[in-house]
Amino acid sequence: MSSQYKKINIPERKNIVLIAHDNKKRELLEWAVLHAKELAKHNLYATGTTGKLLERETGLEVTCFESGPLGGDMQAGAYIADGKLDLVLFFWDPLAAQPHDPDVRALLRVAVVWNVPLACNQSSADFLITSPYFSGKYIKTVTDFTVYKNRKSP
Ligand SMILES: O=C(CO)COP(=O)(O)O
């Protein structure tokens, strides 16, 4: 691959954020309970309410951001921009309007910018968690934004 890209080493123990909108929380919680043993091998983050429920139902330790509508999605997005999150599990609700829809879209967008694995529903989460990369090392390719950052501004 050309020098427009660079490699980032993702370690075995990953920083994972879990988020679910209200109508999807039960689905994410049941999924997390089922996969608690695997999730325990990683550092877990979550938006406020999702995180509290995850801790209660799985017994796993979770670092909680603010609740989503209060800025939690943006905090997760900032972590991604800083290279502090390796994987996003975000069960968002396609059938309910969210007051913080711009934040949700920003989070999804920045995850794509940094080529962060992103599961937005349970079957995608199943595919990710059963991948050898989930608990193994992975070398990620991201766009090298040096050219963009050094561009001449008009
Ligand atoms: O709204 C959310 C994500 O957009 C989730 O936030 P909570 O986990 O605080 O409910």
Keywords summarizing the entry:
154 residues; alpha/beta; Rossmann fold; two-stranded antiparallel sheet; 8 helices; 21% strand; binds 1,3-dihydroxyacetonephosphate; Methylglyoxal synthase; MGS-like_dom_sf
- Amount of helix: 40-55%
Secondary-structure class: alpha/beta
Order of adjacent strands in the largest pleated sheet: 4-3-2-5-6
Termini separation: 30 Å
> How many structural units, i.e. domains?
1
CATH topology: Rossmann fold
Q: Give a count of the beta strands, DSSP E runs of length 2 or more.
A: 7
Uncertain runs: none
What portion of residues belong to β-strands? 15-25%
CATH architecture level-2 label: 3-Layer(aba) Sandwich
| Level-1 CATH class name | Alpha Beta
Fourth-tier CATH superfamily name:
Methylglyoxal synthase-like domain
Number of helices: 8
Taking all Cα atoms into account, the compactness measure Rg is 16 Å
Biggest sheet, in brief? 5 strands, parallel
3D shape: globular
Mean pLDDT: 96
What is the topology?
Layout (H helix, E strand, L loop, with lengths): L4 E6 L4 E6 L4 H10 L1 H4 L3 E4 L1 H11 L3 E3 L7 H10 L5 E5 L9 H13 L4 E2 L2 H8 L2 H4 L2 E6 L2 H4 L5
Parallel strand pairs: 2-3, 2-5, 3-4, 5-6
Antiparallel strand pairs: 1-7
Helix pairs in contact: 1-3, 4-5
Brief description of this entry?
By secondary structure, the protein is of the alpha/beta class. It has helices spanning 25-34, 36-39, 48-58, 72-81, 101-113, 122-129, 132-135, 146-149, and strands at 5-10, 15-20, 43-46, 62-64, 87-91, 118-119, 138-143. 1,3-dihydroxyacetonephosphate is lined by residues 19, 21, 47-50, 67-69, 72-73, 104.
